[in-house]
């Protein structure tokens, strides 16, 4: 699928990124990023769960989409649903909330002259408190802090920490670290850094290690993804 335009910015009232894209139609590959989205397709609202591997998306024709990509661990406080229950899924919002509540959001989106702003407003209104441990934990895991150390910092036993991260982010801390390392490496690849330099900079043992991780998570090699669009 050809993306003819893509824009994103911080959502402001909700911890996440607001994005808009225009597609010419066809197939696209969505890479795992540790996040969850609510997406307005122009006709429906869809929830994209946290991906463990690359996902495929097929569009029959040109269309525009607006989405809010929540920071890791935030979406359950908007949706009222565990992240791991939505892992590797693309489902209609009504499957989470039922038809009545979803219809109120659909009506508001359809009538708005600013669907992106309406989506942010509704998510802000729905947002419940995010547990205090979530943001520092996400930062520590992204920085490569040992999982046991991150659990201690959060004041949890290793077993409780594993369960809480799984429920909030959608998978365990070690999987989240693998995916975060991949997403951090992508801008380096697209900036033209050498493959070995990217591997060293992002904490892979060597380039073969990075190659194996990319193939496992995306089905593509680091070299193949150098020119992938957002």
CATH architecture of the largest domain: Sandwich
Strand order of the largest sheet: 1-2-7-4-5-8
Overall average residue pLDDT: 93
Q: What would CATH call the class of the largest domain?
A: Mainly Beta
Order of helices and strands: EEEEEEEHEHHHHHHHHH
The largest sheet is:
6 strands, antiparallel
Distance between the termini: 12 Å
Portion of residues within helices: 40-55%
Structural class: alpha+beta
Secondary structure topology:
Elements: E1 3-10, E2 16-23, E3 26-30, E4 36-40, E5 45-48, E6 55-59, E7 63-70, H1 76-79, E8 90-92, H2 94-97, H3 99-111, H4 115-126, H5 134-142, H6 147-153, H7 158-169, H8 173-190, H9 195-201, H10 207-218
Antiparallel strand pairs: 1-2, 2-7, 3-6, 4-5, 4-7, 5-8
Helix pairs in contact: 3-4, 6-7
Description:
With 230 residues, this protein is an alpha+beta fold. The chain has two domains: 3-126, Jelly Rolls (Sandwich); 134-218, Arc Repressor Mutant, subunit A (Orthogonal Bundle). The protein has ten helices and eight strands. The strands form two sheets. Strands 1-2-7-4-5-8 form a six-stranded antiparallel β-sheet. A two-stranded antiparallel ribbon has the order 3-6. Strand 1 (3-10) and strand 2 form a beta hairpin. Helix 3 (99-111) packs antiparallel against helix 4 (115-126) and helix 6 (147-153) crosses helix 7 (158-169). The longest helix is centred in the last third of the chain and has 18 residues, at 173-190. The model has no long low-confidence stretch (mean pLDDT 93). It comes from Gordonia asplenii. Pfam families: DUF6597 (PF20240), HTH_18 (PF12833). One of its GO terms (molecular function) is sequence-specific DNA binding. This is AraC family transcriptional regulator. Residues 128-228 form the HTH araC/xylS-type domain.
